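User: quick one, sequence for these tokens?
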């Protein structure tokens, strides 16, 4: 019978943990963020017999810079949001009621409550946030991006909130401009949106020259449990 040992991981476990290359079809960002994650969280690993056992688009990195070079932006109000800007936004009940469908939203696959204290979690791990019309609750749009190095190249997780189709292209281009100097050969864009009509987002991305990369990931499950 095989022996299974579960223990907390350390900095020294890096090579063993990131050696699990099949996670998320190679899109796992753990290799690039392992050390930062351990500074803020505890992790555990199962050792068996002594061994450590959605819209997604892609284009060559060399094509990304030319794809956005001549793009014209239409919404001059799209701007980068600082930590204090995000805290103010998350404190504005009228604004958050428009942007988010419930009391919890997602940032880089992480479920977060709508509270100003989560501004630092949004910006963690090189988070990039843009907002447009944030002074108008009915027209505001928010986009949260996180670059992630993985075995397939550079992935960029982009979360959209607020159904303002006229702002989508400007937000996407702004985010892409932050990653054009990375040296990886492949760039993959993963977009999440609460808007039921994602066809407009898809049209913008395909017009930029991306190819749709279909994957078998269809559902995300999140369970929240109150701690006594």
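Assistant:
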């Amino acid at each position: 019978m095989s022996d299974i040992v579960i223990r907390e991981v350390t900095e020294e476990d890096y090579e063993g943990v990131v050696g699990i290359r099949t996670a998320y079809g190679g899109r796992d960002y753990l290799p690039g963020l392992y050390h930062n994650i351990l500074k803020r969280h505890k992790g555990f690993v199962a050792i068996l017999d002594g061994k450590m056992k959605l819209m997604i688009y892609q284009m060559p990195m060399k094509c990304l810079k030319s794809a956005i070079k001549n793009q014209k932006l239409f919404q001059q109000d799209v701007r980068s949001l600082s930590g204090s800007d995000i805290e103010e936004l998350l404190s504005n009940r009228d604004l958050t009621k428009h942007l988010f469908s419930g009391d919890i939203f997602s940032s880089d696959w992480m479920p977060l409550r709508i509270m100003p204290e989560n501004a630092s979690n949004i910006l963690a791990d090189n988070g990039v946030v843009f907002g447009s019309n944030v002074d108008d609750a009915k027209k505001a749009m928010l986009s949260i991006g996180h670059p992630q190095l993985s075995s397939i190249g550079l992935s960029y997780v982009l979360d959209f909130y607020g159904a303002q189709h006229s702002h989508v292209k400007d937000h996407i281009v702004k985010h892409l401009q932050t990653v054009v100097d990375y040296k990886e050969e492949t760039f993959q864009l993963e977009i999440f949106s609460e808007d039921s009509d994602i066809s407009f987002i898809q049209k913008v991305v395909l017009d930029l020259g991306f190819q749709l990369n279909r994957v078998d990931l269809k559902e995300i499950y999140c369970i929240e449990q109150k701690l006594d």
